[in-house]
Structure formats: C-alpha cells, structure tokens
Predict the structure.
Amino acid sequence: MENSAKVLLKWARDLLKSNAIEDITFESRVLLAHSMGISVEGTFLIDAPIIQEKANHYKSMVYRRAQGEPTAYIIGYKEFFGEIFKVDPRVLIPRPETELVVEKTAKYLNDQSIEKQEVMKIVDVGTGSGCIAISLAKLFPSIKLIATDISTESLELAKSNAQNHSVIDRVDFSENDLLGNLEGPFDIVVSNPPYIDSNSIQAVQREIRNHEPIIALDGGPSGTEILFRLITQAKERLSDDGLLVIEIGFGQKEEVLGFCKKNFPSNAEVKLEVDLAGIPRVLLVKNNE
C-alpha cells in the first residue's frame, strides 16, 4: 500500500465503515494525527509519503478502533472542558454532557466571594479521571476539593491528571464508597455516578460495554440505586445552604425529582437542567437556610 496520507486515510475509512464505526472521516484523521504527532488540521497539509514506522503505527491503531476499542483509550487522552485528560480502561471516558455538571457548579461558585470560596468544603464523588474536580480547581484557584472513588486504580490516574494540571496540592483524593466515612457538612457535592440499569449494560454500544469499566456504568437493577444512595448521603451531609449537582440518565427525570422532593425539606430548590440534546441531565438541589 502506498504510504500517502490520502491512501492511508481511505484505507482507514473503508475498514472502519466495514466494522460499523461511526464518524469514520473524523476518527481516521484523529488517529492519523496522533500517529504523526500533529494536529487534526495538520493532517490536511501532509504532502510527503509517511515513513513506514508511522504508517504501521497508524494501521495498528485503526485495527484497534475497528475492533471497537474507543479512540480515547487508543490515543490515551480525552478533551474535557477545554483541557486534556489522560484516560485508559481504568476510568470512564469523559462525556460532553458531563461538562454541564462543571458549568452549573461554576455558575454557583461565581456568585460566591473569594473569601467564601477559600473556606468552602467541596467534594467530587466518583471522580474517575478527575475531570470534574480538576476542571473546577483550574477555574477557581481559591478552592480546594476532595475527590473520591471506590477504585484505587481510578484514583491513581486521577492523581496523575491533577499533577499534570498543577492542581495536585488543591485536590485531596480519597478511596471511598460515595460519601461514606466522609464528614460534612459540604457546601457543594458534585458527581457523575453510574446510572445505567444492570440489564441494559449489554445493550449499550460495544465501545462502552466491552471496554469501559462496568463499575462506572452499572447503577443497579433500576439504574437509580447508586443515585439514590448518593442523594440520601448528600442530604445528611450538605450544609444549610449547600448545593448538590448530579448527572442523571435518560428517562430518570420523574423518579429522581420525586425522590428528592420526598427526601429534602420543602424549602429546598430542586430542578433539572437539560443537555444540548434537550435531555434532562443534571440534578440541582439547593438547601435554603
């Protein structure tokens, strides 16, 4: 095979298409960019033949993608909230929808004084790659956070990401099952917990079910078991004017709202924010003194 970018990209698109991979044009270029150590835009400017070593590297990555391995795991990183995070099969790949958790939390923090930010107790539950906690730490240099996860391996990667983003001194990582063993009160609790029901795991995309950690996906038989455990624990640990920000799954709106209204005081503000697809995605519960 000729090692021109044009020929290699066509071969990659054909292979990915035959294996039912979506967005083959973009995926083929992302992998080429990574193999060449250049930007995706830079792949349009390649006019010389690609050396055999890099062509072989590219082909090996395309074969992995064709077999269903997520691109983020192949190249080793994922962009989230404008920052690059290392990812591998130890952690869930950050999704664009989860950026809404950061946006809503940041909006609340923006309304607080620097003096209050400095003393606020904030926790990210089920931190995974650390993308939520680290994004918030970078946005607000005055805050400190706790980031928990039940997985030791996830915490190792999250710590590495915090080190890379120079916030390791402001994020305290803790191996923990949700909020258990943590003392409140917390001013902010944020989380993207598992919320897919156990029976539906095998129905999700093969990239997800065969490669991403099940522990970060499986929310129990109904999909809300872990959500409701976390909401219950947060209720007991939120400060009098504390904020709870949690990502939820498709179709869980009514059940989650009902659970919160039943368990939180009547003066608590409970609402859901929709994502770009119009799906109720982020639960916000604000205690009122």
Remarks:
- The chain has two domains: 5-67, 90-286.
